[in-house]
Amino acid sequence: MPNPIRHLPSFPRLTAAVALGALTMFVFGFVVFFLDVVTMRPDTPELNSDAIIVLTGGSNRVETGFDLMAHDRAQAMLVTGVHPDVTLPQLLAHWNAGSAADRTRLAAHCCIFLEHKAETTEDNAAEALGWVNRNGGAQGMSIRLVTSDYHMPRAMLLFRRAMPEATLEAWPVASPERTGYAFIRQVFIEYCKTFVMWLK
Q1: How far apart are CA 22 and CA 16, in angstroms?
Q2: Per-position b or e across 40-73, b if 16+ CB within 10 A of its CB
């Protein structure tokens, strides 16, 4: 009678099979993540929101927030992660798409706020939550989140955890270059960071 134990995979083979399976799933996940990034578009672009939250750190993020405010797409805007020495007029001076009249109007806007403490995406979410709570709370609030396309999945994950009562809408800023090694590397780094957040 054959011994069934002899037909069981050895521990090294089993370990290798599990590792290969995990690696395959990780690579497949990256492909899905990459395709999601390069095809990402703004959620419900036709709708206005109560507030806009802009995460600094990438090209055209702040400028996109100014564009939205210039078109009266929200009542208030928070720019989080701004350098402590930077002021609103200085940011507006780099807004090439804005007219002089738009810059003047936004410089005098009652409800554009700069947050200077955040250094990470987790900090962004925490500081934004504090700002939201000081302005009526997240319950029922619609928030347009503005950040780079490659950064959006992790940002949305962290913000949804921080303020589940809010309605969050993504407004991804397309990367200037969506091909080439540098972009793929950037997306892969973001995928790894997002993967770690998923596991937490």
Answers
A1: 10
A2: bebbeeeeebbbbbbbbbbebbbbbbbbbbbeeb
Architecture of domain 49-199: 3-Layer(aba) Sandwich (3.40)
77 strand-pairing partners: 52, 112
CA angle 23, 172, 179 (to 5 degrees): 55
Q: What angle do CA 11, 18, 34 make, to 5 degrees?
A: 160
Residues counted in the chain: 200
- Map out the domains of the chain as residue ranges: 49-199
Name the residue with tokens 């290969």. Answer: 20
Sequential pLDDT tens for the chain (200 residues): 555 545 556 777 778 788 888 889 999 999 999 999 999 999 888 899 999 999 999 889 999 999 999 999 999 999 999 999 999 999 999 898 878 888 999 998 989 999 999 999 999 999 999 999 998 888 889 999 999 999 999 999 999 999 999 999 999 999 888 778 999 999 999 999 999 998 88
